[in-house]
Amino acid sequence: MKHAAIGRGPRSGRPDGRRWPAEVSLEELALLADTAGARVVGQTVQRLDSQHPATYIGKGKVEEVASQRLELGYTTVIFDDELTPSQQRNLEKALDVKVLDRTALILDIFAQHARTREGRLQVELAQHEYILPRLRGQWSHLERLEGRIGTRGPGETQLETDRRLIRDKISSLKRQIEQVRKQRALHRRQRARQGVPVLSLVGYTNAGKSTLMRALSGADVLVEDRLFATLDPVTRRIRLPSGATALLTDTVGFIQKLPTQLVAAFRATLEELEEAALLLHVVDITHPNAEEQARTVEETLVELGLADRPRVLALNKVDLLEEEGSGKGEEGWRTALPAWARGGVPVSAAKGWGLGELLREAERALAAER
Ligand SMILES: Nc1nc2c(ncn2[C@@H]2O[C@H](COP(=O)(O)OP(=O)(O)OP(=O)(O)O)[C@@H](O)[C@H]2O)c(=O)[nH]1
Ligand SMILES: [Mg+2]
After folding, report:
1. What pLDDT is attached to residue 194?
2. Which one of 23, 120, 244, 262 is most buried, by most CB atoms within 10 A?
3. Is 206 in the pocket of ligand 1 (CB under 6 A)?
4. Measured in angstroms, how far is the CA atom of residue 320 from the centroid of ligand 2?
């Protein structure tokens, strides 16, 4: 599959548009496309004060993209934002290729990667909710959807039948997810009774949460240089420096412009964070947008109602800083840390550096909370 990616300029009216230059966000979209198995053959940005109601980008831009079709040979165009169903339809008509938005792309990645039953249920729900307003009796572009098994009701068109089937499916998925949530809530209460504090790893996708999970607990979790490697939560028992035990959980990473449908769908999983006595916020301190990523995570935590939770900032991948610092050693990169990150604990999950200090800091924060 070949993709062209399109982003909108910084005057986009989105609250995070200022901090995330369109080009940076577009690079991230390219990584997402790569994770989904596509090859990016071209990118373009248009600076607009507001999106075009019918086609998101302006008419001239649509023509420009259409005119590059032969040269680039793209088969799909991905927009770095959420498109309305009618914008998507109009663009597909005008460009005569499949048009996806950021939400559809992330949904696709999640569908490919979710392994556990509840993970799959949550993705399926988000997919069905995404597709419902976009249904128009033609091909539906998330093909995993179990098409038209349709026993058509009296006087129903195929489209109405499809809509009804999808609504039924959504209700059934919601019921199943509700059961999962109840089970999880029960487990949480049981664990809370045991009085073992839960430390939850949170952070931007690819920050190194699973690597840290591995380093701290020995858990054989998946680590990959890829966005959204982890979707299903994992919990392991660890020992704190004082000798006390704690539970450590690893879960799905956050990303800017995380589709609202996914936040809602992943509630059952993200609710695991509710029992966290402490959040270990993992930042890839070597990433050019580390600060924006950290802020996105903080904002997502606020949205999830976790603003008050004590947290420790783990500044991960400092081994890479040391390499860059060409032998100046620890002092070299310590002083190179940006001001916003000064309160954090420098660690290297890959090399096992700073883990003792991180856990000591975690215990201090836990004690202060009590
Ligand atoms: N150099 C270096 N690389 C690291 C370190 N920690 C993690 N990585 C690499 O960063 C990439 C992402 O690591 P993961 O542990 O999968 O990151 P994650 O936060 O769990 O990512 P998602 O589950 O995809 O959200 C992998 O290629 C890791 O090998 C570190 O301390 N140093
Ligand atoms: Mg992970």
Report:
1. 83
2. 262
3. yes
4. 19
